[in-house]
Structures are given as C-alpha cells and as structure tokens.
Design brief:
Number of helices: 1
Order of helices and strands: EHE
Structural class: alpha+beta
Radius of gyration: 13 Å
Largest sheet: 2 strands, antiparallel
Strand order of the largest sheet: 1-2
Low-confidence stretches: none
C-alpha cells in the first residue's frame, strides 16, 4: 500500500518511549482478535495542505 500525502509524515518516536510499548501491545492484542499479524504505523500531521 502506498500513501501519498503531504499532510502527514511518519511520527518520530524515540526507542525508549512508552508509546512504542503501547503500540506493540495494541498490535499483539489486535493479532489475537483477528488471527492475523497487524502492524500499526504512527503518523503526525505536518501542517501542509494537499
């Protein structure tokens, strides 16, 4: 899948951030519920229009 937009960019998340642990736990739980591997991607808004 290719997403082309200037409104969002991949969010800069530090490795030691608790945010990463939350995302990993959510991915694991979603995988349990769906039976498929799930990958969540964090984006942050850039402020650009398009």
């Amino acid at each position: 899948m290719k997403i082309e937009t200037k409104k969002y960019e991949v969010a800069p998340l530090p490795e030691e951030s608790q945010v990463l642990e939350v995302i990993k736990n959510a991915e694991a739980r979603l995988a349990e519920l769906t039976g498929s591997e799930i990958t969540l991607i964090a984006y942050s808004k850039t402020g650009e229009e398009s």
